[in-house]
Amino acid sequence: MTKIKNFITNSHLKRWDVIIILLLILSSFLPLVVFALQEEDSSEKQAILRVDGQEIKRFDLVEGQKKYTYLYEDEDGDYNLIEIDGGRIRIKEADCGDQICVRRGWAKENGETIVCLPHKLVIEISAIDGSDTDDLIY
Question: Which of 20, 96, 117, 135 has the smallest set of CB atoms within 10 Å of its CB?
Fold first, then answer.
């Protein structure tokens, strides 16, 4: 502590200069705190089901929500069985030939999509607040 006092008294810095510098250093961490708080709030997500570009239904993806299924069937009789389990969604069953949408598995991160090309069906995960994507690590 005496070294700091000697540094302050022997330099051109005054006591208030040191206080201002310390306040500036501490305030430089303020954006980290603000963005960390915003990140916690943006955890509410939804899945949007679109067929041929037209929105059909929205599913809220809430952690701890009870598992349920939704059956989408078009006028030709083609179907996709969609399963929602808490904060994630998948196509559990479909009558398309390639089954890529079923093998895709669960989607839960903001910006992820599940696509069934034969049925022109797309499920996209997005944040309820409208933000684009999470920080995904690939």
Answer: 135
Q: How many Å separate Cα 78 from the centre of its chain?
A: 31
CA distance 114 to 54: 15
What is the rounded distance in angstroms from the CA atom of residue 51 to the CA atom of residue 96?
A: 14
State how far the Cα of 87 lies from the Cα of 102, in Å rounded to an integer: 18
DSSP letter at 59 equals E
Return the half-sphere exposure (C-beta side, CA atoms, 13 A cut-off) of residue 64: 2
Q: What's the rounded Cα separation, in Å, for the pair 124 and 49?
A: 7
- Statement: the pTM of the whole predicted model exceeds 0.70: no
Spatial separation of the C-alpha atoms in residues 112 and 98, rounded to whole Å: 20
